[in-house]
Design brief:
globular; 321 residues; single chain; 11 strands; 2 domains; 19% helix; 9-stranded antiparallel sheet; alpha+beta; 7 helices
Length: 321
């Protein structure tokens, strides 16, 4: 949400809160202690949807799960009311209930987690971080980030996702030949389906195979050194659109990636720029007509917790892989 990018709000949250982020789709389904905790929390909130439906929102709670404030909004005024209301509710608690020693929360062992709703990066594979952002033309026609302020900035900030590859899939990116070759179709389809999407306003609608009208992913060796490192150029284009064409994306892309002597991916950068049009099922209010949309990929090593977040498209693993 756009207000999480404002320094004054970030400072306020860091001063008064311990921020925690979870994916409602997983949390409301899991049957382990974490899922039971979340169920107990959202039952205290004024949700209006039936049981089993979305429980997304913003919750302020005590460490033992007592709800202090709740909202589900992207509008600034109710968000600030929620934020200040949570602090006010906390301050109304008896002083002894606000002391750290009042709470003792045991950490859950890894084997206590519901395996049906735990996603971990593939061992020996690679993780790409993906940023998506709507763009606009300046007075000279060059592309730039959108400059909207306040509530009009909703949807103008970068959205983030990930792209996972197994060890075998990573190895398929490399060749000992010098001639250009096509990116493996399996990897290309996964990129288009899950990451060549407009997720800047929320959960995107994924592309289906018959909506991948035209695509070209070409790699070729750029150079190799004496230490066994080889760098490839990746380029191509896509045309993605629904059958009656209310939604689509036409873009070009380019990038480079490198492997070392052990055939491990050591670098990956790719930029996708094109025109997007139309609304997704859960993402209305797109800009009229077609408008520029940019996507950037880069390799991360997975040492940071944020970089191990699962791709949104892997909720159904069999479909993702």
């Amino acid at each position: 949400m756009f207000f999480f990018s404002q320094p004054s709000i970030i400072d306020y949250i860091n001063k008064h809160y311990v921020p925690v982020v979870g994916d409602d789709w997983y949390q409301r389904r899991r049957t382990d202690a974490e899922g039971i905790f979340f169920t107990g929390l959202h039952k205290q909130a004024p949700h209006t949807t039936p049981d089993g439906w979305s429980r997304q929102g913003l919750y302020t709670l005590t460490p033992d799960g007592r709800l202090l404030s709740f909202t589900n909004t992207w509008k600034m005024k109710p968000f600030m009311e929620y934020l200040h209301g949570g602090v006010a509710s906390w301050n109304k608690l008896p002083p002894e209930q606000r002391e750290p020693q009042h709470f003792h929360i045991e950490a859950l062992p890894q084997n206590a987690l519901d395996p049906d709703y735990v996603r971990t990066p593939p061992e020996g594979g690679s993780i790409l971080k993906v940023y998506t952002r709507i763009l606009e033309h300046d007075e000279n026609g060059a592309l730039q980030i959108c400059r909207e302020q306040g509530e009009k900035a909703w949807g103008t900030h970068a959205a983030m996702d990930h792209y996972w590859m197994t060890r075998t899939e990573v190895r398929s990116l490399f060749t000992e030949e010098t001639a250009p070759f096509a990116l493996p179709e399996k990897l290309a389809v996964r990129l288009m389906k899950h990451n060549f999407v407009d997720n800047t306003r929320g959960e995107p609608t994924r592309w289906e195979l018959d909506e991948m009208v035209n695509h070209r992913f070409t790699s070729n060796v750029l150079f190799a050194d004496n230490a066994g490192n080889t760098t490839y150029a990746l380029s191509g284009s896509v045309l993605l659109q629904t059958s009656d064409n209310p939604r689509g994306y036409k873009a070009d892309f380019y990038g480079t990636y490198t492997h070392n002597i052990d055939w491990q991916l050591t670098d990956f950068k790719m930029t996708v720029v094109g025109d997007h049009w139309g609304d997704g099922k859960y993402t209305p209010h797109s800009r009229p007509g077609s408008a520029p949309l940019g996507i950037a990929f880069h390799l991360v090593d997975g040492t940071k917790a944020e970089d191990r977040l699962p791709p949104q498209g892997i909720r159904k693993p069999e479909r993702y892989w």
